[in-house]
Amino acid sequence: MNNIYVQINSIREEINQSFSNTERWLEKDTHLQNYRPQNDGWTIFEILEHIYLTNHFLLKLIEKGYQKALKNINNLDLESELKNYDFMNENLKGIGKHKSFIWNRPEHMIPTGVMSLNEISENLNFQKNQCLNYLDEMPNGEGVLYKITMTVNQLGKIDVYQYIYFLAMHITRHSIQMEKIEGEFYED
To answer: Most-buried pick from 43, 67, 81, 101 (CB within 10 A)?
Structure first.
């Protein structure tokens, strides 16, 4: 059962690190934030809005999973669930790597430009606290007691902890993308 505490702590570190990386992009020069890359992809500003939008919808699923996992504590044997628990799989590792797989995002996760940078910043901070709060509320492995299907990168059914980790890796994936845009911006 000690393994789960290590995993939860690792997820907490990933959440803190990924959101911290995002905060530094919020503070960058507006010319850089609004620079359209040569491949006609999203600007850093648009990526930040996409991160917020994606987090918003992932957190709805995480909330549902969190509630059901806590209900399942009375119906399932947590100790036996944790006995052979394996947090990481290859497809989950790949989520944080930019362009490691094709991801056809839904239309509701495409940035619209309606939000201000300040609104995005405030919402991202709130989302970070939500993630950390879920981890605090499931300190003993409760998050393994409910799984939700995730079709991205053929993940299949993943538990609540894995969903929170997925959210952090999605941010990391886009941080790498923003670094590439910044490199191109300063090359021009």
So the answer is: 43
Token duo for residue 156? 């299949």
Range of the structural domain that residue 163 is part of: 2-187
Task: Report how many domains make up the chain.
Answer: 1
Query: Is 142:78 a contact under the CB 8 Å cutoff?
Result: yes
What letter does residue 157 receive in the DSSP assignment? E
Q: Quick one: tokens of 173? A: 């994936």
Q: In the block, which residue shows the tokens 């605090």? A: 136
Cα separation, 66 vs 60, in Å, equals 10
Token pair belonging to 180: 């590439």
4 and 140 in contact (C-beta within 8 Å)? yes
Q: Are 45 and 100 in contact (CB under 8 A)?
A: no
Number of Cβ within a 10 Å radius of residue 121: 18
pLDDT digits (tens, 9 = 90+) for 112-163: 899 999 999 999 999 999 999 999 999 999 999 999 999 887 888 999 999 9
We report the CATH number of the domain holding residue 135 as 1.20.120
Specify whether the CB–CB gap between 130 and 66 falls below 8 A. Answer: no
Q: pLDDT tens, 34-71?
A: 999 999 999 999 999 999 999 999 999 999 999 999 99
